[in-house]
Write the structure tokens for this entry.
Amino acid sequence: MDFSENHQIVRDTARRFVQEQVEPIAHEIDEKGQFPADNMAALGEIGFLGVFIPEQYGGSGLDTVSYAIIIEEIAKACGSTALGVAAHNSLGVGPINQFGTEEQRKKFLPEAAAGRMLVSYGLTEPGAGSDSGGTKTTAVLDGNEWVINGSKSWITNASYAGLYVLTAVTDPTRGTSEGISAFLVERDTPGFSVGKKEDKLGMRASDTAQLLMEDVRIPKENVLGQVGAGFKNFMKTLDAGRISIGSLSLGLAKGAHEFALKYSKEREAFGKPISGFQAIQWMLADAATEIEAAELLVYQSARLKDEGKPFGHKSAMAKLFASEMAMRVTNNAIQILGGYGYCRDYPVERAYRDAKLCTIGEGTSEVQRIVISRHVLS
């Protein structure tokens, strides 16, 4: 795919950082389930935690194509690190940048851009996953403060964030479209706590935990956007977030495919490299084709967003196809490596485990099909 000179500079910067700092520790942090705190701070220093934040607030002010490139390059080596970067930039910072007041932007965006503060996004609850309109967390206005009670689950970067963007029901009589609002909750607010860290199949170095809120009082001005517009605004955030997961899926697939391709040329069986056997050739050919198709979908949706054109159904297509493609490609990469592919010593095993999350997070494959079919039938 052709990229501008600026986009190529972004890719070169990301690739160099990944080679020097991400790839060398990717296996270790996966084994230990260790959040890459030092690398996240370093990513802030090079501007990759403020991708969408305007320069006036200390951000990089880059476009969505640049962002997709960054996530793809990181994911080639470490899905966990890519997920942490994506959740902060798109889900955490995105709503503040898009719906926040000038005071909120001035207060929070410079810290987020510099990597001194991660931002988490809280929509999912124990009983409200795909049905995110089933939110049970409540926020009641008491004088000049909102009082929040409830819990959130499956929150990325939860244990390390300093700020949380989350939804709560503010008027149960007005339904999903007008009865749910978004709020900014700082970590040290009394009554707020981070719950149990999840022990996951993949993305093991990405921090995932619950958020617990018991009579959490925040200033009235910490509502994000208009009261009652939280659910609608968060759905817009997810449209953009699906570009993140598509990019992440693309990176995981490319990393696994490149490793399997190299291995197939070096590994010999029956007196010749296994790349000489049609069974292997066809798996490699299928992978190359599907990766190319996913790349076109991901970057098309990114470009549509940058151009200010409708992109929601395209990002759903990109996320759906790329995530399921990543499962097929990483599965076949393991098959090409045989027994070695099944061992933790080789990165294709980790990529396969990481890829599964991409078919679930930010809307399952089934939810993406609902989004796409509504557009097709409209």
Q: What stands out?
A: The mean pLDDT is 97. The first strand starts at residue 118 and ends at 122.
